[in-house]
Amino acid sequence: MSLKTGDNSTNLIPILFKRVCEDCEVFLQNRLQNLYLNSTVDGKLEITWFDSDNQTGVTERGELLSVDEVENCVPVEVVSEEIDGDFVIDEVENCESEHLFVNDGDDFNDDDDDGEFEEISLKDIDEEAVRVSGVVEDKERSDNLMGEGSLGLMGEESEQARFLRVGRKKDFVHYEQFGWKKTNVLQGLELHTGVFNAEEQNKIVNYVYDLQRMGQAGKLRERTYSEPRKWMRGKGRVTIQLGCCYNYAVDKDGNPPGILREEDVDPLPSLFKSMIKRLVRWHVLPPTCIPNSCIVNIYDEGDCIPPHIDHHDFLRPFCTVSFLTECNILFGSSLKIAGPGEFSGPVKVALPVGSVLILNGNGADVAKHCVPAVPAKRISITFRKMDESKLPYKFQPDLELQGIQPIAKSLSLSKPSATPVVKEAASSAKQAVNQEATKEPVVSLFNFEDDFPALGSGMKPKPKRR
Ligand SMILES: O=C(O)CCC(=O)C(=O)O
Ligand SMILES: [Fe+2]
């Protein structure tokens, strides 16, 4: 971190951007934005940039902070408590918690050769839970889960029909000013609705409950299950980590934030691999970024996740799948504490159950996100691919997760197949977004349109810009 912007940092910008190609401009812009984020709050020193390699930070004014200074600085803004070796981040002003310290198949149905899709995954949940509990090497069962053994969740519908009904919103827009430049801090965000139907959600939720029971009974590996002490609203949430152990903040052993490579957690169970397969097959996640880890968040009423940017030990895009209760997720480069477990920010996106939110680009790296106190019990599963160089030492790549390919977008996609059902999905995705999250001015507008508009549906309306 040798760049010192100082008070005259904006003077550097025209020079930095001179004769720079478009790609480099985006890259530079992102870097600069990170430098500009999180200025002082109420006169307290905040760090705008955390260098995870050197464990140093940079203040808004470009001052380089040593490891010690970073450590001394952050507790001013971060309230966290250590619970069983894990830091549970509570009310956090401006997300510095995870951002700084942490630097932060579908085989629900499987396609067979004749082009029909047959339900394949989801075995008996109890059996599967036992399998996950440590008997994960049961390859035969795993094969069955991914192959035969259909529970018929797809019913009479083909995978193609289900795929067509997914609502997709990819045009989130909210401009924020960084120095002289306005940036869409939501660029890269996508909301896919109707990816998991009610029956599938039920299976997944019951499975999560089984995992939770096993965690409580000490039947999962030590770092897999974490249940915080709750002493007030907004405190903590249960987490189940699979595929890797993620450290939210420097822990009692002095481990830095990020993936703890030497720690062992339970691997992704087949059911979750089935979910991942669906996400890739249904064009929700790209085949180039297939997740190999996940964190299950179990929120009781009033639980929250404070503002943060997901650690860069995880690649982009990553995604979060919602269950049980619709809730809002807030986005913005600056998110504020509004009360115990309550936050405010410029953009509010509703997350319907069964939906998948993709975080990528600025939406993952410039805007912070948080889930304020949820109105009722909620579960989310965040799937992320680990950076190759950060894989746990004992990590075994999973063959089931290799070579997953998206299904072909058949010709029917371009037919006016925007049946009422499709429209319904579209409008529910549209309703899912509310940019009047707070009283703060909202400068962005967005338009919903399905990925696959009906023929003759005309040109894309352009997002309005200021
Ligand atoms: O619960 C959610 O939807 C968000 C979870 C999240 O931000 C995370 O796991 O990093
Ligand atoms: Fe997150």
UniProtKB/TrEMBL annotation:
Fe2OG dioxygenase domain boundaries: 290-387
Superkingdom field: Eukaryota
Example GO biological process: mRNA catabolic process
Sample GO molecular function, one term: demethylase activity
InterPro entries: AlkB-like (IPR027450), AlkB-like_sf (IPR037151), ALKBH9B/ALKBH10B-like (IPR044842), Oxoglu/Fe-dep_dioxygenase_dom (IPR005123)
Family according to the record: Belongs to the alkB family.
Name this polypeptide is given: Fe2OG dioxygenase domain-containing protein
Native species: Stephania japonica
